[in-house]
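Worked Example 4.2. Consider the chain below.
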Amino acid sequence: MTRGEWIGALLCAAALAIAANLSFPLPGTSLPQTAQTIVVLLSGALLGFNGASITILLYLLAGIVGLSVFADGRSGAGVLFGPSGGYLLAFWFAAALIGYLADTGRLRRPRWRLLLWMLLAHALILLIGGGLLSVSVGITAAWFNGVQPFWVGALVKSVIAAVIVLLLELLPVAGGSKSSWQKQTTRQ
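Applying the procedure from the previous section yields the following structure tokens:
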């Protein structure tokens, strides 16, 4: 990875930590609704597979070593074994999926697929997170506490991420460095 890509990954990891604090509780669930998944999807679209993977790994490492970057100001490796641990681990899968699609030019061809891919990435987060949550609380409780309450938020955040990516396509490229998304746009 280039120096610019590392800087992008560090900035996205920091944005992910900030987005963890943009949260609110949902009635009937112990898990907060956060803005993190928007950043997860944007990191994939803007940085590609490698940059998005590094972003998520840096974020998780920061939380594991004790920085209060997880939702509700939490930190430590124990968070990964708690109710939200599966969702945090699923961030990598979602970012990697979107990053791969951005790198290969499949993210926006045709353009309407962008929203579909964002929704699929959110579904992946909910599936993996809910699946790991079900190990400790059972399938029914995981569905009602960790998946079903988050569908509307996933839809809204998918739309937000898709709109941001489309708006970023309109921006001029500074310094000659193009994101995976912009490289894909110029290929077409």
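The chain is about 70% helix and 5% strand. The CA atoms of residues 44 and 168 lie 14 Å apart. Compare this with Example 4.1 before moving on.
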